[in-house]
Amino acid sequence: MIFNKDTAQKTAELLLQINAIKLNPKNPFTWASGWKSPIYCDNRITLSFPPIRNYIREEFSKNLEKQFGKPDVIAGVATGAIGIGMLVAEYMGLPFVYVRPEAKKHGRQNQIEGFLQKGQNVVVVEDLISTGNSSLMAVEALKEAGANVKGMVAIFTYGFDIATENFKKANVDLLTLSNYENLLELAVAKRYITEEEQETLKVWSKSPSTWNVEEV
Question: Per the CB 3.0–4.6 Å rule, which of 120, 125, 151, 171 could disulfide with 85?
Answer without folding.
Answer: 125
